[in-house]
Design brief:
There is one protein chain. The chain has 361 residues and is mostly helical. It contains 15 helices and five strands. The chain has one domain: ABC transporter involved in vitamin B12 uptake, BtuC.
Amino acid sequence: MRKFKSINKFTRTGIISYLLVILGFAIIFPLQQLGLINHSLSGQLVPICTYIVMALSLNLTVGFLGELSLGHAGFVSVGAFSGVIAAAGLQDKIAFEPLRLLIAVIIGGICAGIVGLIIGVPVLRLRGDYLAIVTLAFGEIIKNIINCLYVGVDKSGLHISMNDVKSLGMENGKIILNGPQGAVGIDQISSFTAGVILILFALFIILNLVNSKSGRAVMAIRDNRIAAESVGINISKYKLIAFITSSVLAGMAGVVYAMNYSTIVAKKFDFNTSILILVFVVLGGMGNIVGTIIATVVLYMLPELLREFSDFRMLIYAVILIVVMLLTNNEKVKLILSNTTGKLLSKSGKIIKWKGSADNG
């Protein structure tokens, strides 16, 4: 245990995060294959995985960069619908579903990253409430644009229109996006395994970024922008790095999420979804990777676990959120939790205090 304590705090956070995800997969996957998990819970495994990635990616912007973004669901929707279009276009060319899903995830991430770059260049010059308002507006604009899109595919390739289905001019083709009805007839190729792999990939990217020169520059900007700029840190560059990385991961999560359903609509990725992801981040701890994973799983499952109390379910859920918020921001509670969870027994039986950091999990 002494050796574990002596490990770099970022490395320690990475070990705990990876072990938490792998252990969860090792327990749940065999149970799922044996049919010991009910259909309701089994159907939530992929969404839980994708929401974990969404929360981790938003934590990169909110927790490590220190900028409030209220349009994160917009990047998720860009990735989701671009990935669905890519997967549908490749359906006749690539029969191997995992490969098709991988290509769709990469394309979804790239598209979300490009949008993140376009939005980030002007938006990241703003601060505080102004940044939150602009990102909120971005999320609503993206939703409305997708509601106006009609996309189909036939032998001659993709057809895109913003009028109606007839204007696509297809011959015996397949409709992919049908305006307000969203993506229809999606080939459901997502899986729990794909979701876990995406979480591990997101952890790899985020942990390595945070523990790099760029990550330290990002956190320096968060702690004191003026001091960071005074020592020569390029504020715009490093803010863009964090913002675009966050956008790419959100887009990838959107693809895996969308490919888990036969139909998906733009309304699913509205302001409420952005707030939900932000709640996961805040309650898990700003900049706390392990806390974000645990908070996402618990809070996503909580409404389902409270289904028996249908009349009071949302009331109980709201009360729990308020209580957790108060407790996580109480210094005395933080000290108690630190003393309780931060004690490890050494081989000699002595207690070793291990003080975790809220900035790195």
